Amino acid sequence: ILESVNGLKALSVGRVIVVNNRQHLNALGVILQVGVVSNDAVNRTFTALIICEKGNEEVDQKGEDSTALPHLYNTALNDPPGQAISTATQELLRLAEANPGGMATLDPVNDLQLKSVDVVEGSMRLRVLQDSLRDFNCIHSPTFAEQFARIKERMSVQEELDRLLFLVSDQSLTLLPEYHQRIKVLQSLQYIDSSGAVQLKGRVACQISSHELLLTELLFENVLSPLAPEEGAALLSCLVFTQNTQTEPHITGTLKEGIDRVLSVAQRIGQLQRDCGIPQTAEEFVGQFKFGLTEVVYCWARGMVRPATLYPVYT
């Protein structure tokens, strides 16, 4: 409806609306301002004055689905909050008091003259559902909103549980091939044996939160042993630094040898994963480890620069 010309015209300044979202339930309001997003005739923003209970004012809902309705079916308007402070609010209060059971809304077919098959069929189905819901005695219960909210929450939890159980079941073939591929990688690196029992290297990897394969291989190959503490800190900066740099850091000596060892181990792991069927090239695996911050971290670890001077370089 909102994508139609008549639907957009109907939502104009002064139009009385009924707002339903996570914050408001059947709140009566009036459109104060209509804004267009990026010269798009369809996507618009609406500023509205809404009657709401004290303490239930609009809050920031970023990241939430603001269109999700917290109820099944209810046309009763919210209680007026008391004395209004403007002419617009007074008019909304009058409308709310005159229509305690709900207000008639614009019909998309008869009022907005939308004649497409989808809209007509959808409108007819909506009327049938509304008529059937009115016959349900449960919706007239004073505690219906609370009861339905609890039921909806339990349904959401059960749906998520069913989805996760399916993903880890044998019936789900989406992750099964990758699972076997990664099992093959772990067996080749001797993290587990042929029966799936976890070996020493596997127990070490379990204690590492990220880049488990690379760090475990570096530890067991004693790559860090020849390095001074500040060199080790600088070398491991490749695990957290993600930005691409246009110039390579000027590094020599044991730290340069350490970088070469890290790249060699990463290349070996990446090639092994590729050979086991994982759809990532060895170059892509190696490319995630970047050494653009190595020289700066080395200088900082030696106390040659203050931490504050690192910030512009890092960003």
TrEMBL record:
Is Hydrolase one of the keywords?
yes
Keywords of the record, alphabetical order, are: ATP-binding, Helicase, Hydrolase, Nucleotide-binding
Query: Which reaction is recorded as catalysed by this protein?
Result: ATP + H2O = ADP + phosphate + H(+)
Q: Which residues form the ATP-dependent RNA helicase Ski2/MTR4 C-terminal domain?
A: 193-312
Determine the domain of life of the protein's source. Answer: Eukaryota
Q: Mind telling me which InterPro entries this protein's record contains?
A: Beta-barrel_MTR4, RNA-DNA_Helicase, Ski2/MTR4_C
Q: What is this protein called?
A: ATP-dependent RNA helicase Ski2/MTR4 C-terminal domain-containing protein
